[in-house]
Write a structure and sequence with these properties.
With 340 residues, the protein is α/β, with parallel strands linked by helices. It is built from 10 helices and 10 strands. 41% of the residues lie in helices and 20% in strands. It is globular. Bound molecules: 5'-O-[(R)-(carboxyoxy)(hydroxy)phosphoryl]adenosine and zinc ion.
Length: 340
């Protein structure tokens, strides 16, 4: 079975084709094209929705052609498209394009929740995943913790009350004048930090870490960085490295603490990570160590780094895992605030 996946929810135009192997479980990837708008948005330090939509409109036909160039359209069996959450004008570009395509090809179109797809990409390389699971989707737009009973059955446990974790990385990088997107840059700067050779000590809060709920808040953390940075007379490389290390650790501490709390409270068998921030090396490793130590019987799944940030493969995988024969195309609409 060949499945097409399309995502235009934020600043990447993504189209991928995957093939589900009949004999051996798992998928093979036929194409995975991502056209990034990073350079365009870098000067704003974040994504500018109307600009992003214009770029998607321009790029989507080109990306689609690149991704499907070697495939006969009649071989495509199923199509998936992100309907939300995301930036509404961007979502509509993908949804309208894909609806027309499904109509032309006479193939079923599956509406995909972007947050769910960031988690279901883990099915690409793993099988026999035991439920229930606690899932953490951490990206530029979302920080959501949810309980998964089976594919399609979720209970929202908590989410950020203000900025997402990725947004915090992006805004801090902007404050420190380091560029966009902030996550990979901060992670690189944090890696250069050496306690022994760095006389700068930065201490930041861990917002909401010990609250009884599963919610998050990262906007105060960004403000704490801003105030400390403005107050500091020294703004050299080493100081910025110390700041990057501390802000990264503060975000990781909160994410890990809440995820483990949820896993223990709900007695889950699996912990699943996904989303752009899941590409963070320290988060991946520290969460792994903590699970091994505190919940050794719980399985930990995270996507390969290249499948953490937005891509069409995750949409195609989610379409396969949620496939239905008949869905009324007119019912498929973009929903910027779609919940899990
Ligand atoms: O999932 P994604 O590609 O888009 C959304 O759905 O929002 O996530 C993008 C976010 C950005 O905020 C980016 O800074 C962050 O993921 N990110 C990282 C890393 N790579 C990307 N954050 C921390 N460490 C990284 N290595
Ligand atoms: Zn995403």
């Amino acid at each position: 079975m060949i499945i097409l996946g399309i995502d235009t929810s934020c600043d990447d135009t993504c189209v991928a084709l995957i093939k589900v192997n009949d004999k051996r479980p798992g998928f093979s990837i036929l194409s995975n094209i991502i056209s990034s708008q990073v350079k365009l948005h870098a000067k704003y330090g974040g994504v500018y929705p109307s600009l992003a939509r214009r770029e998607h409109q321009k790029n989507l036909p080109v990306v689609f052609k690149k991704a499907t160039g070697k495939t006969n359209f009649s071989d495509i069996d199923l199509i998936g498209v992100t309907v939300g959450p995301g930036l509404e004008p961007c979502l509509y570009t993908g949804v309208n394009f894909t609806r027309d395509l499904a109509l032309k090809l006479k193939r079923p179109l599956i509406p995909i929740n972007h947050l769910e797809a960031h988690i279901l990409i883990n099915w690409l390389e793993s099988s026999n995943i035991l439920m229930p699971a606690v899932c953490l989707t951490v990206s530029g737009g979302h920080t959501v913790l949810f309980l998964m009973k089976k594919i399609g059955e979720y209970k929202l446990l908590g989410e950020t009350r203000d900025d997402a974790a990725g947004e915090c990385f992006d805004k801090v990088a902007r404050i420190l004048g380091l560029g966009y997107p902030g996550g990979p840059i901060i992670s690189k700067e944090a890696e250069k930090y050496e306690i022994k050779n760095n006389k700068y000590k930065v201490r930041l809060p861990r917002p909401m870490i010990y609250t009884k709920d599963y919610d998050f808040s990262f906007s105060g953390l960004k403000t704490a960085v801003l105030y400390q940075y403005q107050k500091s007379k020294i703004k050299n490389k080493k100081y910025k490295q110390a700041m990057c290390e501390e802000v990264q650790q503060a975000i990781i501490d909160v994410l890990i603490h809440k995820t483990l709390k949820a896993a223990k409270d709900y007695g889950v068998q699996t912990i699943i990570l996904g989303g752009g921030v899941a590409a963070n090396k320290e988060l991946r490793e520290q969460l792994k160590r903590k699970i091994e130590k505190e919940l050794p019987n719980v399985r930990y799944l995270m996507p390969a780094v290249r499948y953490c940030t937005d891509n069409g493969v995750m949409i195609a995988s989610a379409a396969f895992l949620n496939k239905k024969e008949k869905i009324d195309l007119q019912q498929i609409k973009a929903n910027a605030n779609l919940k899990i």
